[in-house]
Request: fold
Amino acid sequence: MASLAVKYRPRDFSDLVGQVHAAQSLKNAIEFKNIGHAYLFYGSRGVGKTSTARILAKALNCEKGPTTEPCGVCSHCIEITKGTSMDVIEMDAASNRGIDHIRDLRENVWFAPMRARYKIYIIDEVHMLTTESFNALLKTLEEPPSHVVFILATTEMHKIPETILSRCQSFAFRRFSLKEIQARLAFILKEEKKEYEEEALFPIAEKADGSMRDAISLLDQVAAFAGKEKMTVAMVGVVLGIPRQELFFEFLDSIRNRNTKTAFHIIHTLSEEGQNLRRFIWDVLTIVKNITVLKEIPDNAELDISPSLRDELVKQGQAWDSRELMAFFDTLFAMYSSPSLYTSSRSSEVRIAFEMALLDLFDKLTRPSVSALLSRLKGLESALSSGMPYEEKTAASQKSLPEKREAAPEKTVITSTTVPAVPQPPGPTPEEMEEAESRALLEREFMAEEVDTQTGSMFG
Reply:
């Protein structure tokens, strides 16, 4: 019995999930009879590069073709699907990378197809060819016979020489999103009449890391374990070795609460169960990143996470400080990306590095923040300028603040109608003013006489 990955492999352009731009471009080239002599498909693993190459080969060699809808039942389509066609040659450049293999290819391209319309060469992982092999292929790739079509596929386009790239029509194959993978897995399970929990598809899609082929292979593995029973989240965790989701949040809580004992116990449990600690660290980093993003952008809809997980991450973000999250991520990522750990295959070394990174993280989280230090320095500066010890000044300032501010007494509002008119004193009469002026004049004369008596002269 064929595996699910083989059974549900795309058979035509309409069945090619996700790679709409590549499918439409190739269909237009066939429809308008503008078929290129060399194509380059590049992208990560399991995104449909080889499947598209086979679909293109069927479209060109179908008895009804060239056509955008190969029949799938003629002898050419069946042979290409099974991989037994004499005119569609698939090469693995990883094991046929030498100059001798390319020389044989150069000699054979000039022979006409045995039965089909085109002789098609599909060279997978073409970046594995040696420099000499690329140079030998260059001239043939530039001017091949009219009956030959080259389809090159690679996961590392940057390793392809520019001279080769300039002679090919290049198509980028993107990684699949979690939603696209989940939709495809749900379609397969319905076709297989298999019961499943919706939440069980998420960890499979996440572990596939954008590869549809890997996702279907993982689904096949879990389905074999489930048998006739309903596929559940717990089954997926057991089969794929994925720690339960609650364990990640227990670990996060232990870090936030500075609980070293609990954090080390979780690491010990994972190690005893044979879990991949590097994978656990990466999952923790992903969760911390998502918490930080949702904390800063609560309405972010671009995160490929389930609704239940989103709610939990938002809840976690409310309990965490942004500075602590960044310190958490930086410390773990520095340990995870350490070159010494990439060359190590021993889980004990990863565990030691993980535990020491946690101790370093706890030390960072217990240090006062820069803002707290600046606040303390300002308090000390103020205390020195006032001549009062910093502690006493703080206590005094706390005592000076009432614990509960009493309400101010209500004020009586007096309107203009209730205020009594204040009588103004009457001004002096003319007679009184004249009498005051006369009195002032007499006083001036009296003072002048006193001055003249003492000095002998009024002007001295």
User: Anything to note?
Assistant: Residues 245-366 form a domain with the Zinc Finger, Delta Prime; domain 3 fold (CATH 1.20.272.10). The beta strands are 38-43, 88-92, 119-124, 148-154, 169-173.
